[in-house]
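Tip: read the tokens left to right.
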């Protein structure tokens, strides 16, 4: 992905956490996404095939 190209959080694919190491564990550590963006992220991920045994830390974000 080029540096100038940015996806909306809803369009961000789950493949960002499909790595041998588990970058999902701390990807939002210490971060607070807006409820709207966090909801969109979770809804987008729910529509995809997810990998088992991935630890996810949503930081200080909250969802509706």
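Filled-in amino acids:
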């Amino acid at each position: 992905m080029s540096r100038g190209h940015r996806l909306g959080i809803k369009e961000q694919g789950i493949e960002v956490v499909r790595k041998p190491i588990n970058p999902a564990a701390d990807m939002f550590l210490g971060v607070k996404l807006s409820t709207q963006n966090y909801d969109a992220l979770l809804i987008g991920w729910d529509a995809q095939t997810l990998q088992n045994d991935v630890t996810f830390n949503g930081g200080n974000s909250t969802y509706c």
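The chain has a mean pLDDT of 79. Residues 15-63 form one domain.
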